[in-house]
Amino acid sequence: MGMEKYEFFVRRARNVLTYDPGWSADNRTGAWRAMRPVKDPDKCTDCALCWLFCPDGIIAREGIVIDYAYCKGCGICATECPTGAIRMVPETEEA
Ligand code: SF4
Ligand code: SF4
Predict the structure, then answer these.
(1) Ligand 2 centroid to 20 CA: how many Å?
(2) 40 Cα nearest atom in ligand 2
(3) Per-domain boundaries in the chain
């Protein structure tokens, strides 16, 4: 492999490798969310399925409160909610 090609691959690798993964407190994934889940308190029966299914564990069990700093907007909570109490809203829209 020529030097030019080698340097190209090293530059590419630096863009995709994570040298210091840190932990969840360092990675506030809410910053790149396109859709956010919004809970309708009138429809919520406090069944806690959203809390159980959220892959990031960022829904507080008490009061079913979503931590938007870490919610990545995957929509699983809205899909699993049996009463349709959570709807996904584009970040460009008001809640
Ligand atoms: S959208 Fe995804 S990350 Fe955000 S609260 Fe729902 S399940 Fe959790
Ligand atoms: S899954 Fe729906 S009804 Fe159940 S606690 Fe979550 S928001 Fe409320």
Answers:
(1) 35
(2) 7
(3) 25-90
| 12-28 residue pLDDT tens | 666 566 666 666 666 77
pLDDT, greater one: 5 or 12: 5
CA pair distance 27, 17, nearest whole angstrom: 15
Tokens 């863009």 correspond to what residue? Answer: 15
In which residue are the tokens 């699983």 written?
76
Cα 23 to the chain's mean position, in Å?
14
**CB burial string 7-46: b at 16+ within 10 A, e below:** eeeeeeeeeeeeeeeeeeeeeeebeeeebbbebeeeebee
Residue 38's SS3 state is: strand
Q: Which amino acid is at 54?
A: C
Q: What CATH number does the domain located at 25-90 have?
A: 3.30.70.20
